[in-house]
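thread: overnight batch results

M.L. [08:02]
morning all. the overnight job finished for the chain we discussed friday. pasting input first so we're all looking at the same thing
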Amino acid sequence: MTAFSRTLLAAALAVACAPAAYAGKPAATLDALADPALSARVRVEQDALRAERAQLPGYFRQAYARYPAIPAGTLEALAYVASRWQHLRPSTSQEHSEMPHAYGVMGLYHGEGFADQVGDAARLLGVSPSRILAEPSLNILAAAALLDREIGRDGALRKPDAEALRPALERYAGFAKPVAGAAKSAVADYARTSFAYDVLLTQDRGVEESGIQVPARAIAWERAFDAPALVRLRAPLLRLNADADRIETADYYIDPDTQTLRSKDPKAAAAAASTDYAPALWAASPYHSERTSYDSATIHTVQGSYAGSISWFQNNPDHVSIHYLVRSSDGQITQMVRENRAAHHVLSHNKTTLGIEHEGYVDNAAWYTTAMYNASAGIVRHFCAKYAAISCSSAFQGPAGSVVRVLPASVKVKGHQHYSGNDHTDPGKNWDWARYYKLLNPGGGTPGGAAGTVATNGTPLNVRSGPGTSYSVVGTLADGASVTIQCQTTGTSVTGTYGTSSIWNRIGSGRFIPDAYTYTGSDGRVAPDC
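M.L. [08:03]
and the structure it wrote out:
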């Protein structure tokens, strides 16, 4: 990359407006597609968690006072990424994953294949490991002590800003350390980089939901990561002027549709991409075997974080793996095993099924976001289109549960808990199967799609040929006109009657209207992705 390109890139990345709202709210509390009974239970659950979270801000303040080198907002973001501000208490009697357990509000590891963060912090603080596992205040203090140690190793003479924390965050992550004499692992590096990115992204967007409060702080991404890393992460991090068609340098350009940095080098682009499913990133797991058929799709909850799962599926003693992994906050997808190979995730059924892991924990619905459901459903629709034996219309659509319930082979899209010979109970009690079925089968839950009403305060609304104001006008609709929303996608951000939104509603072939001018009775999405 030339010096001129670096200058242009920095300028391009600096073209910004206010940070976008975070997309990480529980889908069951927002979406008209959600199961009403599940939504009611999730609201009760989140109210209980809100009371539990009320004490945490005070503990964060105590940790900052003891470790002043840590930038404000970092600990709150770490807790959000690790646990969604829930004090994790793993139970060996309720296993859902072979991954190392994470403990407490900060999701600290205690060995089992990853670092012994609990033991290390106990020595730093002079307390017993059991107290760090049991007490939220000490769990937060333990994480602060570990991060402060990593900041000190960078030799900072003053408090670093958030962007400068990336190396310390990568070391803090606690994932498996490289084996002595082993070759450097690009996937392990990617997992640590992804962890640091997730923490900074949480600060960049901010979070305020169900008692969780992470202050928004715009991150200067070009200072936190180099350009190849930004391309590799395919991070939706650039806040561009909606009128800008393209910003580019000699080596990179910014895609105005996805608002991500892309490389002009086809080799660099290919290295980061999945060859099976275009929206996915590629990070190879060494654990796979011969496949015999494509008979079903298996839905999992990983009982861990997105970045930690990438690390685990790349290096673990049980040789477990997965085809696709979905991040909660924004629906980012990483593929780790090619579809023509069997991943190791559902025992005797490995050779016939395709698997999707979802970041999070089964007992907290906050992990199951609209972005995650949409991304996951997109993968399964891809399976249904590609493999004749997998039918989206045969997906399970019954109630969620927390026990093993074996379903017949005729049900082609189902959970880990629905297979014979398995004792795992994920995706568990909070996975909305009815909602997922509707996403897999657009129009299957509401005849023709979701109902909407144009609301413009008297002004005719332009109907566009695509999801954006740059597309041609193909008609108009009067204020109060009824529409049927077939599906929804993102495009140009529009400010209208219902605020600012980048969601566009398809109301017919080649006919789109902005959601900001459409009354649907919901603040979230009401139809599947287009």
